[in-house]
Design goal:
CATH architecture of the largest domain: 3-Layer(aba) Sandwich
Number of helices: 15
CATH class of the largest domain: Alpha Beta
Structural class: alpha/beta
Mean pLDDT: 82
Helix content: 40-55%
Number of strands: 13
Largest sheet: 7 strands, mixed
Radius of gyration: 30 Å
Strand content: 15-25%
Distance between the termini: 43 Å
Order of helices and strands: EEHEEEEHEHHHHHEHEEHEHEEHHHHH
Strand order of the largest sheet: 3-4-5-6-2-1-7
Number of domains: 3
Shape: flat
CATH superfamily of the largest domain: P-loop containing nucleotide triphosphate hydrolases
CATH topology of the largest domain: Rossmann fold
């Protein structure tokens, strides 16, 4: 943290400009040694200066240099950004000169790491930065911006505030029992606060399933026996010939993947090998892969042939997916109906004729209703969406339920305090807070016993 780091901050390749970023206490003096123009050590913060990068008497490039002085910078250190022309050789040469003058090549993510270590951002902001970079839909961008802005972190801060309020009262009761003006805190008085906290956590976890879906998309699996039209449906959804389509059963022997966006939510679609009993070794491996993917999928599209009676294998498959989100796609409606549909939930049926391009819009509408996609745009996008933070909140929620049970069994209040402190620490891990020192400050800032 005491050295000065540098790296190219723009994508490699040819472009209009490239940026060499330098951060650290020597950033300004290092760049000043290779910059011909104004004296950068004398200029005001957050200013841009025209000049040239030079090596001895040779001009390397014509540049604009931005000078930003600590602490109002991304890393809270002095930062200099050299805007060069976008040629690879030129940018690389400028970086080499910066390194020769005393900077160190930054590690992956080290500028953001310094921003976190210097207290400018928390771990949820860090995750938000990466999500903004990776956002491939408008809804995902909105979700990431709430992480980056701190709105999502505020959810966790609010939970921690409620935990520390309870902890503070418990600590005071344990450590200062001789004070007459302190309310005696009993399990009975703690219970309503615990129940309120439990409801808050549960609500955030429920809504975070939407955040997870926005970020990760809907993992969609197309299954069915051979030659029912699975690959044709995949191609129709993707609007491209992704999968080979023939009238020969067993053409698809391995999984084929593709993506399309529905109402701002990406659907990651997998077309699987036709599920049937087979002696063909390669096809058998493909069938097993298909079955293994069922538990990992968010949505199952089970394709049946309108022209054929349902088989024993298909009935078994239907039973296997009954507890999943699924839709039954009855394809080949242009042919005579021989399929009995009495055993199916009519709300889950989509009638299709991929040959005649029919049923695709109805399928999209069913998916919208199943995942309530039309409601997402009306929400505020303040959700947890990363597996790490959701996992930690789930642990906190489960621990809180155990605390509630302990209180209902009249477990001593000091034992309850230990479990609550663990919950406070788990919530702190989500945002990257320092646990013990921060808790100490929180406790004594909230109570003034001298009054």
């Amino acid at each position: 943290m005491n050295d000065t780091i540098a790296a190219i901050s723009t994508a490699s390749g040819v472009g209009a400009i490239s940026i060499v970023r330098v951060s650290g206490k020597e950033a300004i003096s290092i760049v000043n040694q290779i910059f011909k123009g104004k004296d950068l050590e004398q200029v005001s913060s957050h200013t841009i200066h025209y000049g040239h990068i030079v090596e001895e008497n040779e001009v390397i490039d014509e540049v604009l240099v931005s000078v930003m002085k600590a602490p109002k910078t991304y890393t809270m250190e002095d930062i200099v950004e050299i805007n060069t022309h976008g040629g690879y050789a030129t940018t690389k040469r400028v970086l080499e000169l910066v390194l020769q003058k005393g900077a160190r090549l930054a590690k992956q993510g080290e500028f953001t790491q310094r921003a976190f270590l210097n207290g400018r951002i928390d771990l949820m902001n860090v995750e938000g930065i990466m999500d903004v970079i990776e956002a491939d839909t408008e809804t995902r961008r909105k979700l990431a911006m709430n992480e980056l802005s701190g709105k999502t972190s505020d959810l966790i801060h609010s939970l921690r505030e409620k935990v520390v309020e309870i902890l503070t009262n418990i600590e005071v009761n344990i450590d200062f029992p001789e004070y007459d003006d302190i309310e005696v805190l009993t399990n009975e008085k703690i219970l309503p606060k615990i129940e309120e906290l439990e409801l808050d956590m549960k609500k955030i976890l429920q809504e975070s399933q939407t955040g997870k879906m926005i970020k990760n998309g809907i993992q969609t699996l197309i299954i069915g026996k051979p030659n029912v039209g699975k690959s044709s449906i995949l191609n129709e959804l993707l609007e491209e010939e992704k999968a080979i389509v023939t009238n020969i059963p067993g053409t698809t022997r391995d999984i084929i993947e593709g993506n399309f966006v529905l109402d701002g939510i990406p659907l990651h679609i997998i077309d699987t090998a036709g599920i049937r009993k087979t002696e063909d070794l390669v096809e058998k491996i493909g069938v097993q892969k298909s079955l293994n993917l069922i538990d990992k999928s968010d949505l199952i599209l089970f394709v049946l042939n309108n022209n054929e009676k349902i088989t024993k294998e298909e009935i078994e498959l239907l039973h296997q997916i009954k507890n999943k989100n699924y839709l039954i796609l009855i394809n080949k409606t242009d042919l005579k109906q021989n399929l009995q549909i009495d055993q199916f939930d009519s709300n889950k049926i989509v009638w299709m004729s991929i040959k005649n391009h029919k049923g695709l819009e109805e399928l999209k509408e069913k998916i919208r209703k199943l995942f309530e996609l039309e409601q997402i745009e009306m929400k505020d996008f303040t959700y947890l969406s990363n597996a790490r933070s959701i996992s930690l909140l789930k642990k906190s929620y489960e621990s809180l339920k155990e605390v509630k049970k302990a209180i209902q069994k009249n477990i001593p209040i000091d034992m309850v305090e230990i479990d609550l402190r663990n919950i406070w620490n788990l919530l702190g891990e989500i945002i990257g807070e320092t646990y013990d020192e921060e808790l100490l400050d929180q406790l004594f800032s909230r109570f003034c016993l001298g009054k």
